[in-house]
Batch of 2 targets.
Target 1
Amino acid sequence: MSEHTTDTEAPQATDGRDPSPFEDLAKFMEIPRVSGLALAPDGSRLVVGVQNLSPDGKKVVSSVWEVDRDGGAPFRLTRSAAGESSPSFLPDGSLLFAAKRADPDAKESDNGNGDNQGLWLLSARGGEARLLAAPPAGIGSVAVARKTGRIVLTARVMPEAKDLDDDAARRKARKDANVTAILHTQARIREWDSQLGPDGTRLFVADAPGAEGKLELRDVTGDLGPVMDSFAVSSDGSKVVYGVLAALPNSEHVAELRLLDVASGTSTLFAGDPEHDHSPHAAPVISPDDSTVAYLRSDLDTFEATGKPTIHLQPLAGGPSQALAEHLDLWPQGLVWAPGSSALYFTADQLGRAPVFKVDVATGEVTRLTGDRAAYSSLHVTPDGGTLFAIRSATDAPARPVRLDTATEDQEPFLLAAPGDTVPLPGWVEEVTATAEDGTVIHSRLVLPTGAEGPAPLVVWIHGGPLMSSNAWSWRANPWVLVQRGYAVLLPDYSLSTGYGQAFVDRGKGEGSGTAFHDIMAATDAVIDRPDIDGTRTAAMGGSYGGYLTNWIATQTDRFKALISHAGVWNAQLRTVSDVPWFFRQAYGDVMLRPEHALRWSPHLYADNVSSPMLIIHGNNDYRVPVANALWQWQDLQRRGKEAKFLYFPDENHWIMRPQESKLWYETVRAFLAEHVLGEEWQQPDLV
Ligand SMILES: CSCC[C@H](NC=O)C(=O)N[C@@H](C)C(=O)N[C@@H](CO)C(=O)O
């Protein structure tokens, strides 16, 4: 039953002159995509990353744009065929960015030929950008000390290398011998679509760049292992707090924070207790007065409960930590200090949105600053403490920069202009609720088409994670591409979704897909009786964890006319060969030690039950949900004579990255739904 609906933004229609970018997928791929913000230390300049299609349409190229803080037109700062990303600022307002560009000043022996990601500087006084550093394997993350301009960056280096020249020689020897083998000595060997090793991450420090010349990079940590969490730098650059994943003997890992004294190169454990308390400590930020480190400490994930992150404060000089706003039933993320060091800003999923919050450090009092139906990220505060800049998106609004006032509760944002900030939508969003069997309220967003001539067919699009909420704009799982074709799309926040309190997250624990399945069915039942929905023409689809749930749905009900599973688990045993097997072990049961739990919810054991036509989609280089799942599922369905198609991407991973392959993904999804939900003839997509 649908308890109530709430109208959201007013419908936006196309103007009738241009075909909608949600109809013409070539145009959809051309919409610029905004990601991340950087604010100059004096607050005077704001820049944003923008991704565009390359002229030949074969790849995405990013560039850095300057945003007008008062809403005027943005302008492009950087331009090259390979693109530029990760902008940050020096104290004098000069811009740093990462780019694979050839160094015009390079000597033949230099590592500046554009093969690797270098750190570039565009002076505040103008002129051409110049290369500051290009380690052999490129740069990773970059941070700048606010007062001195000292630069701290990560780079991957062969573990035995004495310095970056030695690293270059070792890499060349492997390349010349055509060797790519890796000898692993610890459990973590892959991440998403990347091999980890044989190189590891190190932290490098360099003094602020002079008017000419390259940075003198000093290795200040040596090898930190295959994966590093984020790091924070004190205002003078003398201290760095960084997160590492320490390997434990039983193939588990613990995320701990270490404190580096840059002058002496001494690194000590700052937060975390690998001997006794394996709870993760991550995402450190140092207060502007250099007194305090704020970070997120989570309880350990167990089979019964998911670790809840809590803000902790700890003196930079050492001493016990103290939890802040401990009883807040939210999952804070993206911590940012207020300039006076008396408050922190953060975002957190909350009831289908991700507002901006402020927490007072002395009292723990929490204030919500945004009251609109949106998800915020990438917070930056001006040095006078009066203004916040952020990225805002929503189910019905692509990401764009916005300006907020730090003193106003539940405000509407001031929208700033950036490429791709406005697209004509072929429908609108309603917030709907349903009641699960145990009385729990399940929140969803229902995206509806404008101009429908009768009840709309319904697609239930199930988010991944599962520890997230479908509260933001998505380019990978974009409902508008289906709404344009007349479908209504339901985006349910089932149990295990964030933003509805810890009890809601833990409600589905230990039950694999069981509770989530019933929640999704309750959400579906609540909308199919609406006069604007055609409950006889329905489909369900999802990616990643949403793909797993789609696979589970396939074995539990025949109510859907089509099911589309992207990168979904089919055989729960294969979670053991994921890049993060410990996450799946802790979260969903250990296949080896508790097979009765893990296998109870494994779709492959119920393959005989599948009756809805299925489209399986998988990338060969997916290490998060290995492709063996799709191969196994394909054989299971083929051998049983089930109606199915398999869209296989030999060169893609958990996500379909190349623009033309992403376009093909949407084309195939639309063709499959049209065949089975609308009863149209199968239209073979071009290029396959
Ligand atoms: C450090 S392990 C995190 C695992 C993560 N789950 C978070 O809730 C995850 O990767 N889950 C995948 C199975 C998944 O569903 N991924 C989603 C969201 O990241 C996706 O769309 O790829």
Target 2
Amino acid sequence: SSSRSDPLNIIEACQPLNFLLTKVTGIQEKYNRSGAVGIKDLLSPSLGSLQESVQFNYMIDIPWLVQQYPPQFRSKPLVIVHGHQRQAKMDMDVAADHYKHIKLVNAKLEIMYGTHHTKMMLLFYDIGMRVVIHTANLIEKDWHQKTQGVWISPMFPKCKTASDAKDSSTNFKQDLIQYMEAYRTPHFKSWLEKIKLHDMSSAKVHIIASVPGRHIGPAKQTWGHFKLRKILRQLGPGNSCKSWPVIGQFSSIGSMGPTKESWVYGEFTESLATTKDGGASLTMKPTLKLIYPSKDNVRTSLEGYPAGGSLPYSIKTAVKQQYMHQFWNHWKSEHRGRSAACPHIKTYTRSHPDGTSIAWFAVTSANLSKAAWGALEKKGQQLMIRSYEIGVLFLPQNYGLEKFKTLEHASEDPLAFPVPYDLPPTHYEKSDRPWVWDIPYMDKPDTHGNKWCPQ
Ligand SMILES: O=C(O)c1cnc2c(C(=O)O)cccc2c1O
């Protein structure tokens, strides 16, 4: 159908950036009508005649997921890639047993505290395939009243021979294959053969992924924040952006170490601040702005305090890193109508101080943690990563631009970047506190009139 709400029209209207947010129940329809999708839109017959699909994720409600596929695709072969172990793995096996079209693949997690955070869909149609890289768990509440990010590929045509099946200038196909090979599982053999037969030359994003390991030599630049550093070193902004703040936005924070130089305002910011050929000169380290919901952002959100159940920042970690307070900025998304839709999206960018343009933008499953992005060990010889993560990096030159204008400040420009939050960020007040999920909040009720008493 030609209606604007037809999922294919939503996808086509967001080209060439293909970066969307998820629909939010309870906000004005104008903020869901363009630039937003629901999971049923992504699985819709109007996007292609689905033959089989692979769902990579962390939390998966199998009966709910099956119901998100349209009836005519509901029994097409479905592979679910997860990282659960022990009892949670057994629970997945039992849940999947009820569906003969579902196969589970268990990702290896050989380093302690690692998780399979990656959220990706491989959608195989009759004439081609699409890759969706996003931030939402496959559970209902992640698609209901949160701010989540979705990058959806163009249709990658299926080719007769591997030689016809080109890669993109951003090495998207090579990086996707290298990521999947890193699982070292025979279950991916058939998928890798299928992927190799598709023409991915239309992909304009770079893949930034993490796989568990102690990566040395060339592998150090293949994963985590050193992959980001490598791409920005080759293709990043010039020194004109040296004074531009770098911004991280996420839904959880790990242990950052005893001082800001230990990691977050050390190796991590150096990667975000990397410029082409110029490296990240230590003298001119830019301002770091971190966007993470305050306690009041959560209290006044559509979900109320329960939104904090998906913001697992623990008090025992927070008390060890009070120095983080200088970096905190509110979750504010007035121009997208999502100030009350708590963020589960994770994004990283470098923005002009006035917020009217950005030098690059990444959306990823990776929170602010060493486990996700990697931390240097052995005098910088190796990058230790605990978890599987995947995200995409948008660089202006892949769209024929020097910089991206921000949609918030340049609404008519089709290449203006739809940043999910308001720029410039708004710093916490002295009295604001970052949301911590394992302490009680009894002083003020949330939007539903409830308090928060975790135990
Ligand atoms: O999206 C994810 O990958 C992800 C991972 N972990 C959690 C946790 C936890 O690890 O305790 C708690 C609450 C939400 C999440 C979550 O949303």
